[in-house]
Write a structure and sequence with these properties.
Blueprint lengths: L2 H6 L4 H19 L16 H5 L13 H4 L11 E12 L3 H10 L7 H15 L4 E16 L2 E26 L2 E26 L4 E22 L14 E17 L2 E8 L5 E4 L3 E4 L3 E8 L5 E8 L3 E2 L6 E2 L1 E10 L4 E10 L8 E10 L2 E9 L6 E10 L1
Antiparallel strand pairs: 1-2, 1-18, 2-3, 3-4, 4-5, 5-6, 6-7, 7-10, 8-9, 10-11, 11-14, 12-13, 14-15, 15-16, 16-17, 17-18
Helix pairs in contact: 5-6
């Protein structure tokens, strides 16, 4: 560091006061979090950069996606950013998807002992404790701008979570010259259709920033059951039924701290006011706070290594299943970000059957235009994540 750089890096009295104030704001932020177990749905991945980096985004996201990941990130860089993205993630536990395919292909007209044994095997596979399916998704338009050290953004998006699990165990019966398999599966889902507005401010030469997002949320809540029957396509997607529609609002708080040019920390608390939505059958889906922390390291200017971890153990729409995800990722840019290469992995540490799922992604930038793709595949359970986006950055 030369003499001029050392002089300009000496904090002013005003900067020191602002930094002390920011520390108290961060302390208050943590003290305001409710000291109760979380009962939120999973933390849904938004954007192909995060998808390619194992779902890590709390400490590295400073573009328009910060309106979702961590509003404090908006103030850590000055840019005008417009992005549109779509992401989907499916988790098949204990191979239930294959068992449902076998159920669809089952020949009910064969009453032989071998076919009855096959029927019982199919029923046993589907009835296994922990054999469930989760599907998550997000899509929307995200915009970011700035005015001096003040940053703002908004998004119009849909964040969806769902779960399917056996509610009435499958049974095998033989009558009328047919072998029958029948049972029921519960289907639950929540679409959070939202308009979100974010504000962030950076202190102490962008060493520290805080942000807030306010959301108006229209919740489309699903709760139904569908019959599973041998020789009949279960077609889960078309059997969620009619949603109950209700409206609420959500508040997210975020903070980022950059003690050095190569190190950054972030934390976000989502839905701290616990928005609640009505669901069919008299149920209520309540989004209690999700808290996630992250860290990003830049060994050199073109390399980013990131890690996120859910601080809260979040409940899901599947009874007894919790989500607490560890995400690890790395990004290498080349030719002034003309190309970005990403790899990562993630694991739900609350799910004993979960493995570290590998992810990868690529980004291309040409002038203001960006194209990004990301995805991953669980070779153990057959789950997958895929994401794509277009962006204009000025």
């Amino acid at each position: 560091m030369n003499t001029v750089e050392r002089i300009t890096s000496i904090p002013t009295i005003d900067g020191m006061i602002q930094f002390r104030i920011s520390q108290w704001i961060l302390l208050g932020f943590f003290l305001c979090l409710p000291a109760v177990p979380a009962a939120a749905v999973e933390f849904v991945v938004v954007g192909p950069r995060a998808a390619g980096m194992g779902g890590a985004g709390v400490a590295v996201t400073t573009d328009a996606y910060a309106t979702y990941w961590n509003p404090a990130g908006l103030a850590m860089s000055k840019s005008l950013d417009v992005r549109i993205q779509g992401t989907t993630q499916v988790t098949d536990r204990l191979g239930i998807a294959k068992a449902l395919d076998d159920l669809n292909d089952f020949n009910t007209n064969d009453t032989s002992a071998a076919n009855q044994a096959s029927a019982q095997n199919i029923a046993n596979e589907i009835n296994r404790a922990g054999a469930t399916i989760s599907a998550l998704g997000s899509a929307g338009l995200y915009v970011k701008g700035h005015f001096g050290e003040h940053a703002f953004g908004f998004n119009v998006s849909d964040v969806a979570t769902s779960g399917a699990f056996v509610s009435t165990p499958l049974q095998v019966t033989t009558s009328g010259g047919q072998t029958n398999i029948s049972g029921q599966m519960a289907l639950r889902g929540l679409e959070a259709r939202q308009v979100a507005f974010s504000y962030a401010y950076a202190f102490a030469d962008k060493r520290f920033s805080v942000g807030v997002t306010g959301k108006v949320i229209q919740g489309a809540a699903y709760n139904t059951t569908t019959t599973l029957q041998g020789g009949v396509d279960p077609n889960l997607l078309d059997n969620f039924g009619k949603a109950d529609i209700s409206t609420s609002y959500g508040i997210d708080l975020g903070a980022m701290y950059r003690p050095s040019s190569w190190l950054k920390f972030g934390v976000v608390a989502k839905d701290i006011n616990q928005p609640t939505f009505n669901a069919p059958g008299g149920l209520e889906y309540k989004l209690t706070p999700q808290v996630r922390g992250g860290m990003a390291v830049n060994p050199w200017s073109t390399m980013t290594i990131s890690a996120d971890m859910d601080i809260t153990s979040n409940q899901t729409l599947i009874p007894g299943l919790k989500s607490q995800v560890l995400s690890l990722g790395m990004e290498q840019t080349v030719l002034s970000e003309f190309l970005s290469f990403r790899v990562g992995t993630y694991k739900n540490v609350q799910d004993a059957g979960s493995i570290f799922t590998p992810t990868a992604g690529i980004g291309m930038r040409m002038y203001a235009f960006r194209l990004d793709l990301g995805g991953g595949y669980d070779f153990n359970e057959g789950g997958a994540i895929a994401s794509g986006a277009l962006a204009l950055t000025f």
